[in-house]
Amino acid sequence: MNTVTRYKRQITKEKPNERYCSVYESLEESLKEVKLIREGKIKPKTWDELYKELKEEKE
């Protein structure tokens, strides 16, 4: 993800964008949660529980 091919077909290395890092980290965390739910180690949350949690984080 750090390598970018430009229009002139030159390969350059760039610093990873913070936005992409946070998306990647979020997806990684979500995948871990899905695996734990499938293994029965944690209980899945309902939409109402997720909404309430997001609302609390925002405040």
What profile does the largest beta sheet have? Answer: 2 strands, antiparallel
End-to-end gap: 33 Å
Low-confidence stretches: 1-6
* Annotation, overall tally of beta strands: 2
Basic shape: flat
| Tally of helical segments | 2
Q: What integer is the average pLDDT? A: 77
What order do the strands of the largest sheet run in, or round the barrel if closed?
1-2
Hey, roughly how much beta strand do the residues contain?
5-15%
Order of helices and strands: EEHH
Integer-rounded radius of gyration = 18 Å
Helix- and strand-based class? Answer: mainly alpha
**Share of residues in helices:** 55-70%
Kindly describe this structure.
With 59 residues, the chain is mostly helical. It has two helices and two strands; from the N terminus they run E-E-H-H. The chain has a two-stranded antiparallel ribbon. The longest helix has 22 residues, at 18-39.
